[in-house]
Amino acid sequence: MSTSRIPAVIAELLDRFAAAATLQGVRIVDGPPVTGDPLREAVYVGYDGDPDGEGTGAEFTQEWASIGQRARGETFSVTCAVVVWRGSTKVAPVRVRAFEVLAAVEDLVRADPSLGQPPPTVAAFASGSLVQSQRASGMECRIPFQIQCQTRI
C-alpha cells in the first residue's frame, strides 16, 4: 500500500515534460537547481523557482475514504514553475514566452489528467502567479503554479 502518490506524480510530470515536442529546448528540472547559473528557459517540478524561497515541493492532505480504514483519499498540490530569462531588459517578449511554455505544460496535464495513475486520479492546474524581475543580467519572468491532484491510496 502506498503512503502517497506524490513521488509517482512528480516522476510522471518530469517524464511527460521531458518527452514533449512542445517543450523542446526548455530545460526540465527536478526540484531546485544544483547550480546558480541562469537558465534561459526552464520548467521546475517540485520547486517554485525562487532561490530565496522555502523550497516546498508539494503539500497534501489525506482522510479515510470509507469505513474499515482500508483506503484513504489524498489531495495534493505539486509546486512547479516556469522560468524564462533573457539578457535584454524588454519585458513583454519574456512574459509572452513564459506563458507559451506554461500553456504547453498545461496542455500536457489536460491530455491525460490521470497522470498515468490508477483511478480515481484527477489532476488539474489549480493556481499560479506571475513574478517579473529586472536583474543586472536581464529580464526574468517566473510563473510558480500548482498542479492539484485528487486520488485514492
Number of strands: 7
Main beta-sheet annotation: 7 strands, mixed
CATH superfamily: Phage minor tail protein U
Distance between the first and last residues' Cα: 7 Å
Please write the string of helix (H) and strand (E) elements.
Answer: HEEEEHEEE
> What CATH architecture would you give?
2-Layer Sandwich
What kind of oligomer do you see? single chain
Question: Which percent band covers the strand fraction?
Answer: 35-45%
Helical content (DSSP H or I, runs of 4+): 10-25%
Shape: elongated
Averaged pLDDT: 93
Unreliable stretches covering 5 or more consecutive residues: none
Evaluate the radius of gyration. 17 Å
CATH class: Alpha Beta
Number of helices: 2
Describe this structure in words.
There is one protein chain. The chain has 153 residues and is of the alpha+beta class. The chain has a single domain (6-152), classed as Alpha-Beta Plaits (2-Layer Sandwich). It has helices at residues 6-19, 91-111; strands at residues 27-30, 41-45, 58-64, 72-86, 122-128, 131-135, 138-152. Strands 1, 2, 3, 4, 5, 6 and 7 form a seven-stranded mixed sheet that branches. A hairpin with a 2-residue loop joins strand 6 (131-135) and strand 7. The mean pLDDT is 93.
Characteristic terms for this protein:
153 residues; Alpha-Beta Plaits
SSE topology sketch:
Layout: H1 6-19, E1 27-30, E2 41-45, E3 58-64, E4 72-86, H2 91-111, E5 122-128, E6 131-135, E7 138-152
Parallel strand pairs: 1-2
Antiparallel strand pairs: 2-4, 3-4, 4-7, 5-7, 6-7
